[in-house]
Amino acid sequence: MRRFAPGSVEAWVFIVVSLVALISVASFAGGGAVNDGERAEILNDQFACPTCDGQSVAESNAAVAATIRQFIRDEVAAGSSDTEIRDALVQSYGTEVLLNPPSSGVATLVWVLPVVVLAGGAGIVIASLTRGRTVAAPTAADERLVAELRRERD
Amino acid sequence: MLSAFGSAFVLLGLTASVAGMITGVVALVRGQRTATMIQFAWMVPLAGLGAFAVMEVALFRRDYTVSFVQQVGSETTPPIYNFAALWSALEGSLILWALVLGLYIAAVLRKFSDRRRDPLFGWAVVVLLGISSFFFGLMTLPANPFQRVAVAADFVGRGPNPLLQDHVLVAFHPPMLYLGYVGFSVPFAFAVAALITGRLGEGWLVETRRWTVIAWGFLTFGIVLGAWWSYEVLGWGGYWAWDPVENASLLPWLTGTAYLHSVMVQERRGMLRVWNLSLVCATFALTILGTFLTRSGVIDSVHAFADGEVGPWLLTFFAVITLGSVGLIGWRGDRLRSPGAIDSPLSREAGFLANNVLFGAMAFVVLLGTVFPLLAEAIDGSRLTIGRPYFDSLGRPIAIVTLFLMAVAPVLPWRKASTELLSTRLFWPAVGAVGVTAFAVLVGARGFWPVITFALAGFAGGSALRHIVLSVRRQGVGGLIGRSNGGMVVHLGVIILAMGVAASESYKTDRIFTMEPGDTVFVEEHSFTYEGLAADRTSRRDRTYARVAIDGGQVYEPARTRYTQQGIVVGTPSVRPGFTEDLYLVLDDVPPVPDGPIRLRVIVRPLITWIWAGGILMGLGTLLAVIPGSRRKTRGQSAHEVGAGEGTPTKVRVSAFSRLRGLNP
Which residues 350-379 of chain B have a CB within 8 Å of chain A? Predict the structure, then answer.
C-alpha cells in the first residue's frame, strides 16, 4: 500500500484516471435522447421576446413570449427541425429575435474580439514570465559600483 | 414647504462640495492647511442625510407638491415599500447615491482625522468632493427630485412600479448595491491622490485595502440579493437574465475582484503598479458607465424603471474620469516602473496574474456583449440582440478555468514552487475532486459542463478547506479571521454558488400545463394538483391565485396580481424551496370564465438555494476578511501566505520594504 502514499506518482495517476473516467462517463452516457419538452425548453432559451428588451422567450411573461413558446411547442411536436423553427421566427420577427448573434457580417466581431483579448492578455503575461527568468548581464557601470562599494568597505 | 427644504439640502450639498473642492485645491497647491476644506466636506454627509430625510417625510406625508412623490407616491403603498419608493426611480436613487457617498466621506474624514496635514489625504478628499459635486449637480439641474409641482384636483398617486412593491428584498438590494458602487469611490480617490502627489508606493494602497474589501463585499451581496429578488418576483424561474443593468453591476464586480487579487502582488513584490491603478480607476469608471448605459435610455432594459435627461451628463462624467485617469497614469508613468519581475510561472504572483487575465477577459465579454448591439447598429445598421446563449458560451469556459485556478493558486507560495510541494499540497484537494465527482455522477449528474464544474468545485473547495483547517489548527478561532482566511471563506461561497448555478441551469425542468380544477400532473416525481382559483382584493390590488397542492400536501398559491392604480398585472410565483431542489409555480394565464382551465407553469430547479447560500457565505467571508488577523498586528502586513506556513526572513524584509516605499516618495 506504500505505493499509494499521498502525493506519490501512483496516487496522482489514480486520481487523474478516475476523474477522466467519471467525466467521460457523465458526458457520453448522457440522459439519452432529448424528448420534445426538453427540446422546446432548449429552444425557448435561444430566442428573444420581441417586446421585452432582451429577455428570452423562456424568461418573459409577455403575451408574445407565450405565443412564441406555444409556436415552438407546436412545431417541435410537428417534427420541425431547429433550423426550420429558427427561420420561421426570423421571418416573422426579424434577426433581433435571435439571442445568439450570428457568426456572419459585423456580428463576427463579437465572437472574435474576446478571443483576441484573451490571447493578448495571456500573451503579455507569458512574455512577462519569460522575461523575468532571464537575468540581465551586469553592465560595466554595475561592476564599477560594486568595486567602489568593496573598496569603501575594506 | 418640503420641496423647499429638500432643495435647500441639495444646494447645500452642491455648494459645500464645490467650495470644499476649490478651497482644498488652493490650499494643497500653496502647501497650506486644508481645515476649511474639511469643514466643507463635513457638510456633504449632512446635506445627504437631510435630503434623504426630507424625501422620506414627503413620501410618508404623501406631499404631492414634491415632483418625485407625485411620480412614485401613493396613498395605498404599504410603509416598507413606501420607504423603498425613494430608490424606485432615477431622481430618488440619486438621493440615495448622494447619501451613501456622504456617509463614505464622513467615514474617511473620521478614519484619517490624524492625517489632516497629509497631502495624500487632502487630495483624496478633493476627489471625493468632486464626485459629490457631480451627483448633487445632477439633482439640481437635470434630475431634481424636489421640484415643486402643482397638484391636480383629481390627482391620485400611482405608487412605485408594481414589481418594486412585491417583495421585501426591494428594501435591501439597492442600498447594498449602492454601498458597493459608491464604496469604490474611496480607493479611486486615494489612487488619484497618489498619482497627483506622486507618492506611488504602496502607501495609498495599504490605506484603502480594507475599504476596497468592504465595497466589494457590499457589491457582491447586493448582486446576489438582486438575483434572489428577481427569482422570487419576476416569475420565470431564473435569477440572472444578462440584462444590461445586471451586466452593469457585474462589470465593476469583475474588475474589482481582479484588483483585490492583483493588489496582493503589489503589496508583496511592488509589481503591477500601473495595472492596479488602472483597475481601481476602471472599476470606478465602470460604475458610472453602467449608470449611464442603464439610465440614459440608450439601451433598453427591463430595469429601466425611469429615464431622465441625465444621459449626456453621465457620459461626460465618465469621459472625464477615464481621460483623467489615463492622463494621470501616463504623466506619472516614469515613477510607476516595477522594481521586480516574476520568477516562475509556478508562483503565487503568476497565479494572481492568471486570475487577472481571466477576470479581465470576462469583463471584456460582458462589456462587449452589452454594448455591441449599439455598435453594430452604428456600423452597418444591423439589428442584433445579444443574450444568454452568447454570454453562456463564452462565460462557461472562463468560469471553468477560474475554478481550476481557485484550486491551484491558494497553495502556491510566493516566488517559486516546486512540483513536489504542489504534489503534497494539492493531493487532498484532488481527492476531494474525485469524491465530489463520484458522488455527483452516482446521484445522476450527467453532461460535460456541469460535471466538470462539480469536479473543479471539489478541487477548489478542498484547497480552500485545506487552508482554513491548517490556519485554524494553528491559531484556533483566529485562523478564521483576517484577509487570507476570510478570503478562503469567500472562495467556499463562490464554489457553492458555482455548483448551484451549474446544477440549476443544466438540470432545470420547465413544463406548461393546461389544467381544470381537480387535475393532477407529474413533474420530476412530484404531483401537482390544481384545486381551484381564489381571489382576494384590497384597495391596492386584486390578486387572483390558483391553489395547487404539491405531493398531495401543502397548498401553494401562484398568483396574478393586478395593481389597481397602475392597471398593471404582474405574475407572482410561488416557490417551495429545498436543499436539493426548488419547485417553482407560475400562474401563466387566468381563464376568462370561472372554473375554466388555467395555464400553470411548473419549473424544477435543483440546488438553486445553494446560490443564495453561497452569496451569504461570500458576504460572511468578507466580514471575516476585514477583521484584522492576528498576524497582521505583529507584522503590520497581510498574512495571505498562511497555509504555506513558511515565513522566511526574506519575506518579512520584502514587506518591510514595501511599507517603506509607501512612506517615502
Answer: 350, 353-354, 356-357, 360-361, 364-365, 368-369, 372, 376, 379
- Please list, residue by residue across B301-333, b when 16 or more beta carbons sit within 10 angstroms of its beta carbon and e when fewer do: bbbbbbebebbebbbebbeebbebbeebbeebe
What's CA A90's distance to the chain center, in Å?
Answer: 26
> Between the CA of residue B376 and those of A100, B289, B366, B385, B514, what are the distances in Å?
14, 19, 16, 10, 41
State pLDDT tens for residues A67-123. Answer: 898 899 889 888 888 889 988 998 888 888 888 887 777 888 889 999 999 999 888
Pair (A70, A113) in one structural domain: no
CATH code of the domain covering residue B100: 1.20.120
pLDDT digits (tens, 9 = 90+) for B625-636: 998 765 544 443
Left, alpha or beta for B524 (phi > 0: left; psi -120 to 50: alpha)? left
Last residue of a domain, one of B577, B606, B635: B606
Three-state secondary-structure class, residue B642: coil
Query: What residue type is assigned to position B208 of the chain?
Result: T
Residue of A55, A128, A133 to mutate for B, most B C-beta atoms under 10 A: A55
What is the value of ipTM here, to two decimals?
A: 0.80
* Cα–Cα–Cα angle for A51, A56, A62, rounded to 5 degrees: 45
Please say whether the beta carbons of B455 and A27 come within 8 A: no
In a domain, A10, yes or no: no
Distances (CA, A) of B502 to B429, B440, B446, B495, B507: 20, 12, 11, 11, 8
Mutate to test the interface with B, among A43, A99, A130 (most CBs of B within 10 A): A99
Label the pairing between strands B559-563 and B568-572. Answer: antiparallel
Within 310-349 of B, beta carbons closer than 8 Å to A belong to: 341-345
Residues B254-270, buried b or exposed e (16+ Cβ, 10 A)? bbbbbbbbbbbbbbbbb
